[in-house]
Amino acid sequence: MVRSATLIIQDFEPTELQYENPVGICNGEAILQVETSGGYGPFTFLWSTNASDTLAFNVIETNDPGAAQVTVTDVCGNEQSATITYTLPPELVIYGEQTTNPICPGDETVLEAGINTGVGPFTYEWSSGGDGETEIVNFNSSQIVTLTVTDACGIEDDFEVSVEYPVWDPIVGNNPEVCLGIQGDLNLTGGVGEEDLAGNWVGQYNFYTWQYFDYDEAGDPQDSALVIVDEVLDSLAVFVGPTGNFQAGLTQGNMDVVVVDQCGAEGMFNVSIIACETEIPNVFSPNNDTQNDFFRIPGIEGFPNSQLEIYNRWGNVIYQSNDYGGGWDGRVNNEPVADGTYFYILRRSDGQNFHGAVTITRQRR
User: Fold this and answer.
1) How far apart are CA 42 and CA 8, in angstroms?
2) I need a surface site. Which of 38, 99, 250, 271 has the fewest CB within 10 A?
3) Enclosing domain of residue 35
4) What is the Cα–Cα distance from 269 to 38, expressed in whole angstroms?
5) How far is CA 257 from the centre of its chain?
6) In a domain, 11, yes or no
């Protein structure tokens, strides 16, 4: 009987070596390591720095740069060699920066650490107490924070981070005296804000005044609270927006105003609302040049329900209003009246009457 067998000869892929090159010296040691792919194991390793070292890694105790050769042999005697250099570790270079901009003292702001060069992993220490890449601080003024980083080789580097907090000027303004019913302005500067394109200061303010209540039998208040002006019943004025413009009411009096900015800084002001004398202009020019285009009577806003009549030279009423508070544009039935002199009678709501002449001229200068 004849017996047969088949012999299979397998051709393996050649051995390939993977390794890091160069390797940094860290804490007086350079750790060299080789990984294999392909070939037919097990493998033997022969290092030029230590003939008795047959492992896939080699620890060289040194503080000086150099190189080592490793020869890897599989069970079939196939060899592959590689040269791995070891160098001094890179210099540790760090930086730190403030990445958010606080507005008020005590606001939180974020500091970030960064590594330009060095051997990781890294440990972090902030003079403000933190130990991570990110540090959150809240100071009442600008300060210096020192960042210390230590790399895996024990090398340290320091960096000073300047933490900036803005310094706002005190809130200043005026104590205006305005007529009943017209607009006024505290002309505020300082506090949290910024300049507009025209160079004017634009702040973000809240306006408060004292609200009195719990009156005794004599009518004297027994308690009070600081409340937002616009929430006060029968307030003498109402503020228009956050910059200090206000609309005076129709009641005379004085009002203390506490102006508070975004950071809680305060300024104290007084607004006086008075009944102004009525000053009636004697000429206006309704020519649409945006200057003196209307017959306006300053202070009339403080006297609602005042009556105004305009007469031509023949004594005919051409314009009439029973609640005059704005301005006549020199038109009747939407048609412009002729240039010339006209006559008015103003019956102010407090019982006083005024009369006189007003000239219309549309000639542009």
Assistant:
1) 21
2) 99
3) 16-87
4) 87
5) 27
6) no
* Helix or strand run (H / E) with residue 191: none
Q: The domain spanning residue 198 has which CATH number?
A: 2.60.40
Give the Cα-Cα-Cα angle 125, 126, 127 (nearest 5 degrees). Answer: 120
pLDDT at 9 over 70: no
Of 37, 64, 87, which residue is a domain's last? 87
Q: How far is the CA of 187 from the CAs of 86, 269, 271, in angstroms?
A: 71, 11, 12
Residue 195 CA to residue 323 CA, distance in Å, equals: 40
Which residue is listed with tokens 């804490």? 27
Together in a domain, 75 and 100 = no
Domain stops at, among 87, 110, 136: 87
Number of domains in the chain: 4
- Whether the full predicted model's pTM is greater than 0.70, yes or no, is no
Contact 267, 344 (CB under 8 A): no
Cβ atoms of 158 and 147 within 8 Å: the answer is yes
Summarised one tens digit per residue, pLDDT across range 13-34 is 788 999 998 888 888 888 899 9
Same domain, 185 and 232: yes
Question: Residue 188's closest CA among 140, 144, 239?
Answer: 239
**DSSP category for residue 300:** G
Q: With CA atoms as reference, report the closest residue to 68 among 38, 25, 26, 120.
A: 25
